[in-house]
Amino acid sequence: MLTGLVLMLMTSELFSQTSSTLGREFYFSYLPNTGIDEDYEMSVFLTSEVNSSGTIEVIGSDWSQEFTLIANNTLRVDIPAEFRLTAHEIIESKGVYVSTLADVTAYAYNHMAGSSDGSMLLPLPSLDKEYIINTWKSDLNSFDDRTQFSVLSANNGTEIEITFSTNVMYDGVKLHDAGEVLNLTLDRGELIYFESEMDLTGTIVKIVGDGAANCNKLAVFAGNKNFKTTSQGDVGTDHVYNQLYSVRDWGREYFVVQHETRETADPVTIVASEDNTLLEITGVLPIVLNRGESFRFFAKIEHYIKADKPVSVAHFTSSGRHDLQERGDLKADPFMMTISPLKQISNDIRFNVINSPTIEQHYLIAVSPSVRLNVVLDGVDISDQFEPLSLAGQYSFAAIPISPGVHRLESRSGVVAHTYGFGEEEGMGYAVGGNLGNFGIDFQSINSNLGPGQVCAGNDFSLSVSSESDILSELYTYFAWDMGDGNLIEGESVSHSYDTPGVYTVNLYASKSPIACSDLTVSRQIEVIGAAIDEIVGPAAVCPNVGGVEYILSGSEPDYNYQWFVEGGDLLATSGPTAEVAWTFGAPVNRLKALSVSPLGCQSDTVFLDVRFNEILEPVLPLGEAFLCGDFLNIPYRIPNTTGSVYSWIIEGGQIASGQGTNEIIVNWDGAGNHRLWYTENSTTISTLCEGTSPQLNVIVSEQMDIEISTDAVSCFGQNDGSASLSVTGGVGPYSIEWETGSTQNTISGLAGGSYEVAITDGVGCQVIRSVVVDEPEVLSGFVVAYDANCGEATGRAEAIVSGGSGNYSYRWKDNFVNEAEIAGLGAGNYSLVIRDDKGCELILDYSIAVPQPMEVQFEMESPCPDTTDGRMSLVVSGGTGPYLFEWEIAPDHHGSTLENLPGGGYQVTVTDGEGCTLSVTGELLEQAPRVTIPNSFSPNGDGMNEEFKAVYNCAIDFQMLVYNQWGNIIFYSQDIATGWNGTYEGQHVPSGNYTYRIIYGGEVNGNVYQEIINGRVRVIK
User: Fold this and answer.
1) H and E: helices and strands count for the chain
2) Pairwise CA distance, residues 250 & 221, whole Å
3) Is residue 107 a contact partner of residue 59, using CB atoms and an 8 Å limit?
4) What is the rounded distance in angstroms from the CA atom of residue 647 to the CA atom of residue 661?
5) Adjacency order of strands within the sheet including 569-575
6) 34 has which bridge partners?
7) Strand, helix or coil at 410?
8) 658 in Cβ contact with 651 (< 8 Å)
9) Is 644 helix (H, G, I), strand (E, B) or coil?
10) What is the pLDDT of residues 847-900, one digit of tens each?
11) What pLDDT digit, counting tens, does each position of 533-561 carry?
């Protein structure tokens, strides 16, 4: 958006547009925020392409702050919390005013814990006198869900009319009726704030009255104290806040593009400026709105909005909680963004992405015509990241992650852009700038060799207004040109000339009529190229029949062409601005003439000098420095030379070092003070003596200035809190000071580290230029070496390695700052270390302490049989930190993980890991319980298979086996478990059949005595 016109001096072409975000004066305010009072912040962020300085103040208070702004850096200034708006519908002097020496962009930031939003700020020329409120109110009627707006005057005696669109309700009390008109008067810096439980969208704010007061301007801000969406649920609230465009700068075409990372459709409101406004939105039936009426919808895709009369569009963001199920995080929160219409398309936008600690990811949304698509961000062509808008292919858009800081967006075909960002339950967004259009100024002069904006002194030139913008042609029909030399000329086309060389500032004013309010659109400069010739310096009275006489052109410039002409004499020689003439005694006229021509063809008027013959000479004033700044030795002086003349120099306050008797001398002055210099000339070329005495040249030698400079270094790397001061003695007061930042004060503050040039000029014009270096500490950097805890205890420790910063470091490991760079006794977990140097600069380092898994020991055992040593025990260790050392409680010492040839019993071992952690465990090696299995048949038939009846066992034990025949007689007996019955009795094979057996075995296992008796039958098969 651009409320003024753009002036460019040019030849046969249009120049690029100027963004409305750039300005030198800003009026703004903040709206009451809701949330936790801690960490309350009201801040303004400033950035510029060039070094600048300025002042920020709360009008009507004692608080103000001067600042210095470094080119392409961002300066943050915090507004004291005492200037928060605390009451509604009470006129308060809390308007904030920023003024700067160079064009800057400005952004406001309003933050409380858990609630924040920001806005691009419009400079004074972009403010106007009529606004219609555009904000959002949910249908939930929950606590603090209240629409807001504030009205701030930039001038005294501003008569304002406010027409409310709805009942104004506050805590259930009706303060105003719908349609009620409220009249009030505000002075410069005064504001009034309104808050309602109803939707104030459509409320009209405008300046009324005749005369100069009707040309006053307002800054209007709107939002919601605790924004919610609508029936989607009463979750995820936040403060929203944005500066509104005046009705003059509304448009007829807009694009609304879905916010990156969002799943939920976000609210959009559209407000009409005139009755019977036909509104068309892709995907929505046509709508007709009257003045102040609004339409709102939820946008989940991109929407093309077109109206036949100007409308405004605001895009809001729902809470991240609405996306929680789909996204799995809360990295989003409400903000309000006033959308720039497509008529504000711009070729070159410089903007700032606010660096908020609560915002984790920033995005840039840019829309540009698809034809000849060319968009460059910070010098990098990003055109390949654009894709056509599905609902209007003649435009393309891109959503690009972007970092905080200063950026530049360029496009030959033009671009409209907005930036926003999300963090954990945080969000913020605003337009980055736009343009209303552009005027071209056709510049024509008679000399084609000159460049745009250059004209020869005394020559006519013309300026005429042209425009490619229908909007500009509709708005502005009357033009007035302040030519910078006291002349004011009206009309779209004007002619003018300058007689005196120099640089002139032309101011173009535009309005709807000669009696309407005018805006200074822009200031530009015209360079008037002079003749580089003042007068001819040399003898006007000469002796008869002298030889060559030297003449010099004063005010000469190098590279100029000089032409000489003589009447009544001969031109002996010329060298640029110098000529030697032999005059003819008795000629009717003795006259010398000269003119100059600049390298670009500007020709001067002719200057001349009439010469007469006279025995009383009239020597010219000595040529040389009449004012010296400190240096007073070896100063040259000269006069044009006449052949045959003798020059006698007289000095007061100095001595002639060389050249006495000639036309050139070197003088050593005695020092500071007022001195004089003159000479006498006499000629001996004729019998009659010609002589004369020159005028006296008063020479002032100024005392040399003594400049003492002190600096305060930047406290922390990358900060802007350095300062430089100087004191001046000597010279001639008063002194004027000009820093390269634009400041004229002895002390400048808000400096980044670096070199700054300052020029000090005393009261008589002596100037000294010094370079001042503001030191900056090395960046405070470091890392933490973390040592893990072990043995399952809080044995972790950490050591900080730090460099840079200033002086000594203090460390806040847990609760308090200490001077120790190490900490011990840490358990497992994630930690943050805050390091602070002597200047209070902080560095936060995150680190982690891990604890290895505790050691665990598992025994793998092979049990022995009772009363044997064939057992085996092996350890399997996990956790801890290898390697492991084993210490068994046996003799001889054993350090392996396996013991063999063991009897049953308990065995204790101590395991020590690589960190020295120990674990003592005891393994119980149990004896095997003897197991005896008895077959139920065998076949002693000599085939070598199953020939015996005997027990199957695992351990040798006390054993008895008796076999009985059918009459109960014992036919086999054995006490050896390994010996079986072969099916014979008394040497004879027993017949086939069933036989009874009794087995008795027992002993002691693991200290327990046992006995088993098994009675059964075995079948003999033949």
Assistant:
1) 2, 87
2) 15
3) no
4) 5
5) 536-537, 548-553, 578-583, 569-575
6) none
7) strand
8) no
9) coil
10) 998 888 888 899 999 999 888 888 999 999 988 888 999 999 888 888 888 988
11) 889 999 888 887 778 899 999 888 888 99
